[in-house]
Amino acid sequence: MSNVRHPSCAIRDLAVSAKKRLAKPDGTYFPSGLEPPSTLTPSQKEIFLKIRALYDAGEEVNNPIQQLADKEYMATLSHEGRQRYILNLCADYVEMKRLFLERLSSSPTGTKRASNLAP
């Protein structure tokens, strides 16, 4: 058998699509250490994923409350409820940012843009 390339092969198409999902625009692969840990609460996991999405987009986190808060949910809360939600959001953001930066600095390809999230 010869080593012939088959451009319409189903396995080749699956491999190409998987590689595209893993590859970032600059050609590096997403470090596996940047996945959210399984020990996080659902709200912490959501914040971790939002921080990772901002990092992938190359955006800086200028106002974490405005960028991470659920505005529709906040509109339904009372004044005390909003304060409690914002305090919990801030505490979770600080913890998830610390965790994300730790995982980012320990990954081989993640140290390039870590300054985007640093205060």
Please tell me about this protein's structure.
With 119 residues, the chain is an all-alpha fold. The chain has a domain at 34-116. It is built from five helices and no strands. It has helices at residues 10-22, 42-57, 64-68, 71-76, 79-106. The N and C termini lie far apart (59 Å).
Provide a quick synopsis of the model.
The protein is an all-alpha fold and 119 residues long. It is built from 5 helices and no strands.
Q: Determine the N-to-C terminus distance.
A: 59 Å
The share of residues in helices is: 55-70%
Point out poorly predicted stretches: 111-116
The coarse overall form would be: elongated
Order of helices and strands: HHHHH
Rg for CA atoms: 19 Å
The largest sheet, given as strand count, sense and whether it forms a barrel, is: none
Number of strands: 0
**Averaged pLDDT, please?**
76
Number of helices: 5
Q: What structural class do helix, strand and pairing data support?
A: mainly alpha
Strand content: under 5%
Keywords summarizing the entry:
119 residues; 5 helices; mainly alpha
Topology:
Layout: H1 10-22, H2 42-57, H3 64-68, H4 71-76, H5 79-106
Helix pairs in contact: 2-5
